[in-house]
Amino acid sequence: MNAIELKNVTFTYGKHMPGAVPALDDVSIQVKSGGITGLIGHTGSGKSTLVQMLNGLLKPDSGTVLLDGIDIWAEPKKIREVRFKAGLVMQYPEYQLFAETAAEDIAFGPRNMGLEGEELDRRVREAARFAGLSEEILGKSPFDLSGGQKRRVALAGVIAMSPKILILDEPAAGLDPEGRRDILGGVKRFSRESGTTVLIVSHSMEDMAMYCDDVIVMAHAKILMHRPTAEVFSRAEELAAVGLDVPLITRVAAALRKNGVDIGLDVYTVDYAADKILGML
Amino acid sequence: MNPIIKAENLSFSYPGDEESKPVKALRGVSFEIPEGSFTAILGHNGSGKSTLAKLLCMVNLPDSGRLWVAGREITAPDATERDILEARRDVGMVFQNPDNQIVATIVEEDVAFGCENLGIPPAEIRERVDAALAAVGMSEYARKQTYNLSGGQKQRVAIAGTIAMNRRCVIFDESTAMLDPMGRREVMDIIAKLNREQGVTVLLITHHMNEAAAADRIIVMNQGQIYLDGSPREVFGKPAAMWAAGLDVPQTTELAYKLRQKGLDVPLYLFDAESCAEAVAEAVRRRSGKSAGGGKTGS
Ligand SMILES: Nc1ncnc2c1ncn2[C@@H]1O[C@H](COP(=O)(O)OP(=O)(O)OP(=O)(O)O)[C@@H](O)[C@H]1O
Ligand SMILES: Nc1ncnc2c1ncn2[C@@H]1O[C@H](COP(=O)(O)OP(=O)(O)OP(=O)(O)O)[C@@H](O)[C@H]1O
Ligand SMILES: [Mg+2]
Ligand SMILES: [Mg+2]
């Protein structure tokens, strides 16, 4: 069954204003359960709007949003439950932090779900470990943390709710390379072990190539393609036409072919490229 | 050439509160930035990059150490408020989040904002704003609403604001982090042009190794101190040191490193796809030539 399905979803911000254009224009997608799907697209293409549809923060003007086959707006009163089921880490999570300490901030979501005492404590610690937050940082005020540290706190806050679907809007922007590897690698392990469906929005083609099974490409409020990762990054020209790119290593593979060393064009990680090159010797 | 910035043993701590100890964000940082140079600053989260930027823009003053900006010693015991105000005009900053930088609703008003604060006559402001918008390729948008712009366009407007103020040095604190690949390339091109054509000194704080590879020099911060300082070729020539500091190297360098481990002679310092591919192809040909007993060389 599809963990996420959008059927003909259209949405316009301030639709009563003259000249308003849709942020989502007849969008349909299907995301299988248990995998890691990437969502890429130029700025303003509608990615953040789309992910806010998935946990009920925004409501479609028309069309249907289904999670595990269930229309989330079938019973509008139950929309709060959807927020626990589909956990969203927003694009600028630093503005969502407000508690006295980082630990309190992480506890906020699970406490709202009714958790308390030892179980709450355990969830907070586990999520913090997963996001790479030390004991020392947990005791600090979120306002005294560096940009990257704040991002980790926001991520831990959503993970602590153990959502069935984890949605990350630019989770790694502002993280250092090790932090990106920690968090995205951790998300991948977490997804593989728990079967959690993950949707990641990112402008880093390199990160998408490393961690995603398949990739959805958006442009101008519409879906351009939804294919396995290797196939998406072998379509460099189509991506460039909508402001996107392929990983640097993919461009190296294309240039290698021009130089008489053909390792194929579906190359999108350094390890794979190195193996292919060494295999030719 | 005179350094536009000279830092000698700068230290800075954020005060703690009842529960937490003070944080030593910078511990004895020294360097000189020549006027007109392009320096990238790398470092793990919390390594002190933004703290350093705030000292250089005189948002904060160091706890100890000495700092010169555009020839004035800001930390001199007899430095006046006026000295600091004047130095502040020379150094500007562009931040990460495009939405937080824009203050006015119309593009040209936003670009003029900083100049108006400097008390520059309106006719000159007009000229400066037009020139700045042209420099970032946004002339057509002068009368447009700022809220309708894409992230990359907002960053270009923010950069135009610092150009209009005739800043001698601009610090970009992760200014491309929220942009799509094309927007990132556009902004990086504008930053490079600002440096090359207008002689503006650029300090680029980034987590993107490819962007740092475009600089003349890279300073790597680690736990409040300078960890590496050299050309991209020198700094990325030490991949193991970069990985140990929680950082990375461009994918071309990583590929070369992996191939070198298997005895293929590919340099670590080729940062664009074409030159990397040429070197790899050459090395593959040389090696295949040898293993075939010299019988079928490729070139
Ligand atoms: N709260 C809002 N009010 C009005 N318009 C909005 C609002 N949020 C987004 N938009 C507009 O909707 C469109 C889609 O925006 P969205 O934030 O979904 O794009 P995105 O793909 O997430 O972009 P980015 O990569 O910059 O984060 C854009 O034209 C944007 O200007
Ligand atoms: N306003 C503040 N109050 C207290 N401590 C702070 C404050 N701002 C930063 N710090 C601390 O100072 C240290 C350096 O932070 P800084 O923001 O300079 O790091 P950075 O290198 O810019 O990191 P990032 O890559 O995450 O932006 C960190 O340990 C951080 O927690
Ligand atoms: Mg977005
Ligand atoms: Mg910073």
Describe the structure concisely for a colleague:
The complex is a heterodimer of chains A (281) and B (299). Chain A is α/β, with parallel strands linked by helices. Chain A has helices spanning 47-54, 79-85, 102-112, 117-130, 135-138, 147-159, 177-194, 205-211, 229-233, 236-241, 248-258, 270-279; strands spanning 2-11, 24-32, 36-41, 62-67, 70-71, 86-89, 165-169, 197-201, 214-219, 222-228.
Task: Give me some keywords for this one.
A: alpha/beta; six-stranded mixed beta sheet; four-stranded antiparallel beta sheet; 10 strands; B: 299 residues; alpha/beta; Rossmann fold; 2 domains; binds adenosine-5'-triphosphate; binds magnesium ion
Q: How would you characterize this protein structure?
A:
The complex is a heterodimer of chains A (281) and B (299). Chain A has 281 residues and is an alpha/beta fold. Chain A has 12 helices and 10 strands. In chain A, strands 6-7-8-3-9-10 form a 6-stranded mixed sheet, with helices on both faces. Chain A has a 4-stranded antiparallel sheet with strand order 2-1-4-5, covered by helices on one side. In chain A, α7 links the parallel β7 and β8 (197-201). In chain A, α3 (102-112) packs across α4 (117-130) and α4 (117-130) crosses α6 (147-159). The longest helix of chain A is centred in the middle third of the chain and has 18 residues, at 177-194. Chain B has 299 residues and is an alpha/beta fold. Chain B has 2 domains: 3-249, Rossmann fold (3-Layer(aba) Sandwich); 250-292, no CATH class. In chain B, 40% of the residues lie in helices and 21% in strands. Chain B has helices at residues 49-56, 81-90, 107-117, 122-135, 151-164, 181-198, 209-212, 232-235, 239-244, 251-261, 273-291; strands at residues 3-14, 23-34, 38-43, 64-69, 72-73, 91-94, 169-173, 201-205, 217-222, 225-230. In chain B, strands 6-7-8-3-9-10 form a 6-stranded mixed sheet, sandwiched between helices. Chain B has a 4-stranded antiparallel sheet with strand order 2-1-4-5, covered by helices on one side. In chain B, a hairpin with a 2-residue loop joins β4 (64-69) and β5. In chain B, α3 (107-117) crosses α4, α4 crosses α5 (151-164) and α5 (151-164) runs parallel beside α6 (181-198). Chain B is globular and about 70 Å long. The chains are: A alpha/beta (281), B alpha/beta (299). At the A-B interface, α6, α7, α11 and α12 of A face α6, α10 and α11 of B. The complex binds adenosine-5'-triphosphate (2 copies) and magnesium ion (MG) (2 copies). One adenosine-5'-triphosphate sits between chains B (14, 23, 25, 43, 45-51) and A (144-149, 176).
